[in-house]
Amino acid sequence: MKKCPYCKVNVGSDPGKCPLCQSRLTGESETPYFPHLDTLKKRSLFYKLQLFIVWVLLIVALGLDFLMGLRLPGYPDLHWSLLFSMWLIIAEFGIMRRFKPGTGSAGKVTSIVLITLIGLLVTASYLNFFELALDLIVPIVLTAMIVADFVLAFVDRHGNTMVYLLTGLALGVLPSLARFFAGQTLPLAWVISLLVSVTLLVAVIIFKGRSVSAEFRRRFDV
């Protein structure tokens, strides 16, 4: 057993320093109480390296834009580095970090898509294709996500069917209604997204109704 020469306490396992004063321990090491988590160390190193690369790209982009005056062709007054920095942050904290363990498939898919769409709309407003993004790209992406949630609801084996059901409903119906009340008309892509959402909602209820009912009782203790 190791011993701290200053605190005069014995320390089990095989630590290198005293947990009280951080001085180097003396004596023989014992068998570790807990296994070494090499996988977590490698994953931590990967995220640190990834974060370092993101910061390097961000600093270089800001330097080229603000210090050297490099501009995008056709956009002489646009500070493109701000948009580039936004997408770096989205990629690092909004997308890559979603793949950490502990998040369900529905949560991963939904958060990634929503964060990406917000970044797309911000970019579109600066590059002058906001209406195209809002009335065509956004509903197409939402429709694809609704279909993905529908598929995941059928292959799920962990009792999360209701999560996929509510996700598809919320992202298919609510944005379509918001778009309708905002413009008083609903573009074709939004109509298709709404119809697909309602159709797949009915399909899930018909084919997975018992699973949804059992999950509802389990989650709400009914």
Summary?
The chain is mainly α and 222 residues long. It has six helices and two strands, in the order ββαααααα.
Describe the structure.
This protein is mostly helical. Helix content is 68%, strand content 2%. The chain is built from 6 helices and 2 strands. It has helices at 38-67, 80-95, 105-127, 130-155, 161-183, 188-220; strands spanning 2-3, 10-11. It has a two-stranded antiparallel sheet with strand order 1-2. A hairpin with a 6-residue loop joins strand 1 (2-3) and strand 2 (10-11). Helix 4 (130-155) packs antiparallel against helix 5, helix 4 runs parallel beside helix 6 and helix 5 (161-183) packs antiparallel against helix 6 (188-220). The termini are far apart. The model has no long low-confidence stretch (mean pLDDT 83).
